[in-house]
């Protein structure tokens, strides 16, 4: 199996685990995918996986970790393709939602 296919499989399986409520399994698989994306020196793949890790942390209630992940994802997305991509827009939207939720909780 190619590295890219393995990366895609880990990312998909991680999100399936998240959707099934198995957040620890999701984080394990997504972390593996993130390490693979990093070793491939693929900032766009790193951004996509890091965004997904952020979503799992957010669902798990780990807002500080989610914030870090979304910020790192945004940085990688910009590095890989600039700001005009749908991936970047998705990450920015997730980051904005997280900040709004945190602000609402603080009020």
């Amino acid at each position: 199996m190619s590295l890219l296919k393995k990366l895609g499989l880990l990312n998909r399986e991680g999100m399936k685990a998240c959707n099934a409520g198995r957040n620890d399994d999701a984080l394990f698989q997504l972390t593996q995918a993130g390490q693979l994306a990093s070793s491939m020196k693929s900032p766009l793949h790193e951004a996509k996986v890091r965004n997904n890790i952020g979503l799992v942390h957010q669902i798990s209630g780990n807002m500080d970790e989610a914030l870090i992940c979304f910020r790192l994802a945004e940085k990688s997305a910009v590095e890989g393709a600039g700001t005009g991509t749908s991936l970047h827009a998705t990450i920015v939207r997730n980051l904005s939602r997280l900040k709004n939720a945190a602000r609402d909780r603080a009020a």
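The radius of gyration is 14 Å. Residues 57 and 88 are 19 Å apart (CA to CA).
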